[in-house]
Amino acid sequence: MAGYLVEDARKVTTHRLIEMKRQGKKIAMLTAYDYTMARIIDKAGVDIILVGDSASNVMAGNWTTLPITVDQMIYHGKSVVRAVQRALVICDMPFGSYQVSPTEAVTNAIRMMKETHCDALKLEGGEEIIDAVKTILAAGIPVCGHLGLTPQSINKFGTYAVRAKEEAEAEKLVRDAHLLEEAGCFAVVLEKIPAALTARVCSELQIPVIGIGGGAADGQVLVGQDMLGLNDGFKPKFLRHYANLAETITDAVGQYVSDVKDCSFPNENECY
Ligand code: KIV
Question: What is the structure's pLDDT at 232?
Answer without folding.
Answer: 82
